[in-house]
Design goal:
Length: about 260
């Protein structure tokens, strides 16, 4: 396993129901191949400042934004290989820097700033750690992912995420997979990852089934719930607004 990787691509998200997802997977058989790992459980521990500066900036849809997270495939232990990822987005293009280390090394590196590797990627992560004061684990996300790549272009990938769970306690990849659900059980979050154009067969499927891209973010959705609960505890005005995807939903909160 390579211990560092660099990605540059566009990531486009769509919200499907289970029936649409199964129809698409059936059509994909002639064009795409399932990832060798099949369905995997992804755990992502997002880092942020005490006042959630990174996710708040991200939700403002700036030209440039970045996120820092620690990722494992399934529940980790101290010796499990995990990935420290710095994800940047500039003008709709995603740039991801990723480096592998053990969970124990990652904890010492991210929490105590102990130098465990010296690469260009860790130097970029070091800058992020210095630029944002008091970065610490903020939200744990987990979900089941089914991934596919195109037979004629391994840079074109499609992933389907279900059973997306979040929590803002027990913030460790070693604590297990549990939390509150983000999506209805009938919903599937699809991500199209590509360095070029979306193939015509895919465009036709999306058009025929009236499936449109969304700006849905797992971390942002979890943060909105955290924010709403903090507002409830501080006794806000009776009505306030939170954003969910592309629409505004008015919610009543009473102390």
């Amino acid at each position: 396993m390579a211990d560092q990787m660099i990605f540059k691509r566009c990531e486009i998200k769509y919200m499907l129901d289970i029936t649409q997802a199964e129809l698409l997977k059936n059509q994909m058989k002639q064009y795409m191949t399932a990832d060798e790992h099949g369905v995997s459980t992804i755990c992502s521990l997002y880092f942020d400042t005490p006042d959630y500066l990174l996710i708040q900036r991200s939700m403002e849809h700036p030209v440039y934004k970045e996120k820092l997270r620690l990722r494992s495939y399934g529940t980790a232990d101290k010796d499990t290989t995990v990935f420290v990822e710095l994800k940047k987005k500039y003008e709709s293009v995603v740039y991801k820097r990723r480096i592998a280390m053990t969970e124990d090394e990652a904890e010492r590196y991210l929490l105590f700033h102990e130098k465990v590797k010296d690469t260009q990627i860790t130097r970029e992560i070091d800058y992020c750690l210095k630029n944002y004061k008091k970065l610490a684990p903020a939200v744990m996300l987990s979900y089941e992912r089914e991934a596919f790549y195109a037979k004629d272009d391994h840079e074109f990938r499609i992933t389907f995420d279900q059973n997306i769970l979040w929590r803002n306690y027990d913030l460790s990849l070693c604590k297990g997979i549990y939390g509150e659900a983000i999506l209805d059980k009938n919903k599937v979050l699809m991500e199209v990852k590509t360095a070029g154009a979306i193939p015509l067969w895919m465009v036709h499927f999306l058009t025929e089934n009236q499936i449109y891209k969304t700006s849905f973010s797992k971390y942002a959705t979890a943060y909105r719930t955290i924010y709403a609960r903090e507002q409830r505890r501080s006794c806000p005005p009776e009505n306030f607004f939170v954003f969910t995807g592309d629409e505004v939903v008015q919610q009543a909160i009473k102390c």
